[in-house]
Amino acid sequence: MSSKIEALIDEIEEYIENCKPAAFSSTKIIVVKEEIDELLRELRMRTPDEIKRYQKIISNKEAILNDAREKAEELIKQTTIQTTQLISEHEIMQQAYNQANEVVTMATRQAQEILDSATMEANEVRMSAMQYMDDMLGHLENIISSSTQTAQANYDTLIGNLNQYHEIIQSNRAELHPVDEELVEMVDLDENKEDLEVM
Fold first, then answer.
1. Which residues 6+ apart lie within 8 Å of 15 measured at CB?
2. 125 domain-assigned
3. CA 17 centroid distance within chain
4. What is the pLDDT of residues 49-68, one digit of tens each?
5. Count of domains in the chain?
6. Is residue 85 exposed (0-12), middle (13-18) or buried (19+ Cβ within 10 Å)?
7. Number of neighbouring beta carbons within 10 Å of residue 161
């Protein structure tokens, strides 16, 4: 049974497959946030419609049961008419009575079988629809969980790299000013010498 949710999930999986791998990594990928957000937004919008579609399938159970009841009632009605006609024949009244009872019994049994079959069919449709939706939602949950973990890992890697670059920049800046530090030390020594001479 194909659905718009399945198509969207396939599209998300294809998008993830086509993403470029992150630098120096075989397990991480680069995801364009706007594109994945758009796919997830569309999936979020489609999900209620799909659920309504399967709720409609489940509600058809009542229609199936009502149809079975109508068929059973019509069958009993026809049987009753036949019984009345048979009984009205005075010459074969007893025979008609026996035949009528047999027909009514058979019709009642057939009506019950129709009703039982319709109930089983409706329950199977309902269980299949619920299982299908549960499978789809479970698959969706796994995709979202995986995407969240990947995004968090990418964020952690980015912060680690930025901190490393920050330390390298600070170190490089410190190496640019060693002469300035020596001049400051010399000025401090001269000032101390002048203070001693004044004393």
1. 35, 36, 39
2. yes
3. 19
4. 667 676 677 777 777 778 88
5. 1
6. exposed
7. 11
Round to whole Å and give the CA distance between 43 and 93: 70
Q: Does residue 99 lie in a domain region?
A: yes
Handedness of CA 183, 189, 193, 195 (dihedral sign): positive
Residue numbers of the domain that contains 31: 4-140
- The residue among 196, 146, 145, 142 whose CA lies nearest residue 28 is 146
Q: Is residue 75 part of a domain?
A: yes
Q: How far apart are CA 76 and CA 93, in angstroms?
A: 20
**Coil vs helix vs strand at 29:** strand
Q: Which residue has the higher pLDDT, 76 or 87?
A: 76
Enter the pTM of the model: 0.37
Identity of the amino acid at 164 = Q
User: 13-43 pLDDT, tens per residue?
Assistant: 888 888 888 888 778 888 888 988 888 888 8
pLDDT digits (tens, 9 = 90+) for 95-136: 777 888 888 898 999 989 998 989 998 899 889 888 888 888
Name the one residue in this structure whose structure tokens are 């930025």.
Answer: 162
